[in-house]
């Protein structure tokens, strides 16, 4: 890819009703690599690139936003995908195929949605921004395989939405098993989304997310005995097999975020394959209590559950040192410890 900065457009030429200069929409050889959220201080840098394969690339994305006079909103984490290859790879990571049912969080202009629909999937999309909802609703009006809801995903009772959809799907196709999630997420809701979706192994088989790169690494490859090792790592491994697929440099988004992203696949375990604990509620309550006193030994931080000598004894029975701290325990260690304490 040859990269040459060809011009700089002063952002004063942007306005809420005409956010992108028409030259961006019309020139086939210009590629937007950088733009800040502040219209007063920002410049847009245009760079020549030699690749523009799919119709749903940077032109389509910018044209689509321009057609609505939309300027990306930082509060909604609106960083739109400009590289259609990445959308293809997100769909491939979930092995999306004809007949699949896919939930997409935050369709934006619909560039990823289009890939999913072209693969033959039925898509339920949920976006908080009513303007983006109108945009994709119009864009895919001709498709009977697309539905969009205007809701805040974190508050939208996704479990009941999905259960009623799966029920009616299974009536028409008794072999239909599980749905998938594929999404370029706003970074600010990614932890909430992971906590919400991963325990839904009875509904979804795969959750493929585009996350902030550092957050992706912390979720998938946390090292024991580091400050990055947290209860969410226990949750991720309890409910799924996570895989870090590949890094996505920040230049692929408009506007360009300050950080790189990464594609992560969570292959969800079916509930029958969860680690064997008597109660997931009491298991995660123990894990959270243990990490509340992160620097403390478990015999101190779990004192509200049992006395110090009893916790020491349980650690011993679980084959763990009596001086254990939470960041030293794997998922398997926590399961053993929980089950010993629950038996007593
Ligand atoms: C990072 S953009 C991605 C857009 C599009 N998928 C793409 O790849 O270009 C995030 C999208 O999520 C939407 N969004 C932000 N917060 C949301 C929330 N709480 N619930 C649902 N959608 C949300 C934004 O409006 C935006 O369309």
TrEMBL record:
It comes from the Eukaryota. Keywords: Methyltransferase, RNA-binding, rRNA processing, S-adenosyl-L-methionine, Transferase. It is an enzyme of class 2 (transferase). GO terms for molecular function: RNA binding; rRNA (adenine-N6,N6-)-dimethyltransferase activity. CDD domains: AdoMet_MTases (cd02440). Its EC number is 2.1.1.-. Signal peptide: none annotated. PANTHER family: DIMETHYLADENOSINE TRANSFERASE, RIBOSOMAL RNA SMALL SUBUNIT METHYLTRANSFERASE, CHLOROPLASTIC. This is rRNA adenine N(6)-methyltransferase. It comes from Eutrema salsugineum (Saltwater cress).
